[in-house]
């Protein structure tokens, strides 16, 4: 109920799931499902989005996270989505949303492609992951982020929703990222509905 109501307010359609059609993709790429709005409400209360220069959602799906945060905090946002149909739905959402959000000057953009091929921009300093792909791909994406920070020193955060232990093990044993916060979602249907925030400071 809340999901559809909030979608309507933003002028978008993000409810539902989409499985991958090919077995090859299914091994590494997870299905589409949006972060619950209730979780985004809690994250917005606890995390300092005012410090975000640009947020990247790796595996952005139909764009819910970015539309919500762009609308609430007026921050630049970019989403990368590998599934063509899902990407096209994000673009359709953007067309209607932009009519409702004309007063917000910050850009919001969607790219059809693989997260691991996205060239991290020096403006990007907050990276969102709702369990989009295998740890194998996650490693490549984190390596790209580390390379970018080496080139353009800055503080960057990773926000993990529904964090899986493979991601956590990798970050804690093989990277300089340190955990700075754990945000639980009270009364969530699933106990794994929580956020972990990792930071790499200058
Ligand atoms: C669980 S959904 C999360 C959607 C959105 N981030 C949210 O929280 O509402 C994961 C998304 O990642 C996409 N995906 C999977 N592998 C990907 C890859 N290698 N590069 C980009 N997107 C990918 C899927 O198609 C799916 O839409």
Structural commentary:
The protein has helices at residues 2-10, 23-28, 37-46, 64-73, 84-100, 135-151, 165-174, and strands at residues 17-18, 32-33, 55-58, 77-81, 108-112, 126-130, 156-161, 178-184, 194-200. The protein is α/β, with parallel strands linked by helices and 202 residues long. It has a single domain, classed as Rossmann fold, CATH 3.40.50. The strands form 2 sheets. It has a 7-stranded mixed sheet with strand order 5-4-3-6-7-9-8. Strand 4, helix 5 (84-100) and strand 5 (108-112) form a beta-alpha-beta unit. The longest helix has 17 residues, at 84-100. The mean pLDDT is 95. The chain binds S-adenosylmethionine. S-adenosylmethionine (SAM) binds at residues 29-30, 32-35, 57, 59-61, 64-65, 80-83, 86, 114-116, 130-133, 137.
The side-by-side strand order for the widest beta sheet comes to 5-4-3-6-7-9-8
- The CATH homologous superfamily is called Vaccinia Virus protein VP39
Number of helices: 7
* Attached small molecules: S-adenosylmethionine
CATH hierarchy class name: Alpha Beta
What is the overall shape? globular
- Label the CATH architecture: 3-Layer(aba) Sandwich
- Mean pLDDT score: 95
Share of residues in strands? 15-25%
